[in-house]
Specification:
This protein is an alpha/beta fold. It has helices spanning 31-46, 68-72, 77-85, 89-93, 132-150; strands at 7-12, 15-20, 52-57, 104-107.
Length: 166
C-alpha cells in the first residue's frame, strides 16, 4: 500500500501501523488522509500476512477532528476522482460503514476528538465498535495488552502499557 501525504502506512512484521501524519494541524482529517485510511483498511483485511493494526497520530496528537478548510479547498485529481467514485468513502475511512476484520489498536495520545456520532456509544462485542478514540479510552490497557500479546507485540509494550488505565 502506498502512503499519502497525510497518512503513513508502515509494516513491522505482521503488524500494520497507520499513522495520521499532519502534526502541523494536530492530525486534523483531510481528504488525502481519508483516502489513505480506506486504502489502509482494505490492505489490512486483504493481506494475510497482517495479523493486526495500530492506528496512531504523529507529533503527540491523535486527531483533532475534521479539517474544514481542507474539505472546501481544491483537491488533487487523484483524490477528487476517488471521492466522486465512492461518495461513502469518508464514512468507510472513519469505520462507520466499514468493519476491519482484524484487531485494531488505537494508540491515543494528546487530543482525540470524536468525529462520528457513534463515538458516544459504548463498544459492543463486535470490533471495531465506536470511533477508535472512544473505544480505546473505554476498553483501557487490559484490552491493549491482550491484543499486543496476540499480535506478538507484548515485548514492545511493557506491562502496564503506556495506555493502561491501571
Amino acid at each position: 500500500m502506498e502512503s499519502t501525504e497525510n497518512l503513513t502506512f508502515e509494516r513491522d512484521g505482521s503488524t500494520a501501523i497507520v499513522i495520521m501524519n499532519r502534526p502541523e494541524a494536530k492530525n486534523a482529517l483531510s481528504v488525502p488522509m481519508l483516502v489513505g485510511m480506506v486504502d489502509a483498511w482494505e490492505e489490512i483485511d486483504n493481506n494475510d500476512d497482517i495479523r493486526c493494526a495500530i492506528l496512531t497520530g504523529a507529533g503527540g496528537t491523535f486527531c483533532s477532528g475534521m479539517d474544514l478548510k481542507s474539505v472546501g479547498a481544491p483537491m488533487d485529481e487523484k483524490y477528487s476522482s476517488r471521492m466522486a467514485a465512492d461518495p461513502d468513502l469518508h464514512w468507510k475511512a472513519l469505520l462507520r460503514h466499514y468493519n476491519v476484520k482484524k484487531p485494531l489498536i488505537a494508540a491515543v495520545e494528546g487530543y482525540a476528538v470524536p468525529v462520528a456520532p457513534r463515538s458516544s456509544r459504548p463498544p459492543t462485542s463486535g470490533w471495531p465498535g465506536p470511533a477508535p478514540s472512544s473505544a480505546c479510552s473505554r476498553l483501557g490497557g487490559a484490552c491493549f495488552r491482550w491484543v499486543a500479546r496476540r499480535c506478538g507485540y507484548a515485548d514492545r509494550f511493557p506491562t502496564p502499557s503506556p495506555w493502561s488505565c491501571s
